[in-house]
Amino acid sequence: MTANCALLLVNPNSRRGRESLPVVRQYLSRAGIAYLELPPDNTESPSAAIVRLADQVNSVIVGGGDGSLNSAAKGLLDTGLPLGVLPLGTANDFARTMGLPLDLATAIDVIAKGKTAPIDLGEANGHPFFNVASIGFSADLAMSLTEKAKKRWGKLGYGLVAARLLASSRLFTATLDHDGRTEELRTLQLAVGNGRFYGGGMTVQADATATDGMLDFYSLEVDHWWKLLRLLPSLRKGTQGDWDDVRAFSTKDLTIHTSKPRAVNLDGELKTETPVRFKIRENAVPVFVP
After folding, report:
1. Which domains does the chain have, with CATH numbers?
2. Organism's domain of life (predicted)?
3. Which residues pair with 218 in a beta bridge?
């Protein structure tokens, strides 16, 4: 293992990725962090690169949003290398869950100081995720949000596409198996969270952390999209479980079936589909923290 050398992975498609690279390199050099970059024409996945280069580096620094982190998750799990986060995405929900600084200089300072804490990862059909998995409305939202729209419109893009989609959303039937019981429900959206924040400002559960060894589940069982409008303040605060038309609980293991296969959105990326089994991987990845 090379002393104090990091593998630097910056997503050139993320909102601030490409334009931030020169500054990132400058700050890393200033902080005395040696780093290795992949050649521009490299086509392997971030996780594959982490595994291949694991004996040449002693940490991984990922610059991008939650999707960029997600694409590195498997490699981090397989190698046990610590993760440094440079929040260069649209929403940076994981960085906010962990209380990581959102400006670059301070984020790199945190990595340079070298203090790490182990975090949990969620797992959906064997695919790891940092923040949240969802089925229904926000998986449909992920399908409609192109990279181009995300870059051009940022958070406004989420809002515009979401409003259009909401108006045409329909309830679907799902069966849950967890903690020795089975429940059937009609819902607009199911979410299973490992962290606290997702979707650019929504909160899975008010006091959720990525270190509590639990998955937080909620289901929005509203029959009309306009009823969601009165739920929005609660969804932002993570207190939606107090409402009658929202089902919420915490668990370590959960299986969801739907009548026809539905896409499962993990950290903003569509990675698998129902039926889906969720598990928690406790203390799975060390992360540099303030």
Report:
1. 5-114 (3.40.50.10330), 129-281 (2.60.200.40)
2. Bacteria
3. 191, 248
The pLDDT value given to residue 10: 92
Side chain identity at residue 276, one-letter code: V
Q: Which contacts (CB < 8 Å, 24+ apart) does range 185-188 have?
A: 185/219, 185/221, 185/247, 186/221, 186/223, 187/136, 187/219, 187/220, 187/221, 188/136, 188/137, 188/220, 188/221, 188/222, 188/225, 188/228
Active-site annotation, residues: 269
Give the Cα separation of 41 and 241 in Å (integer): 47
Which residues does 137 contact at the CB level (< 8 Å), separation at least 6?
A: 165, 166, 169, 188, 189, 220
Q: What percent of the chain has pLDDT over 70?
A: 76
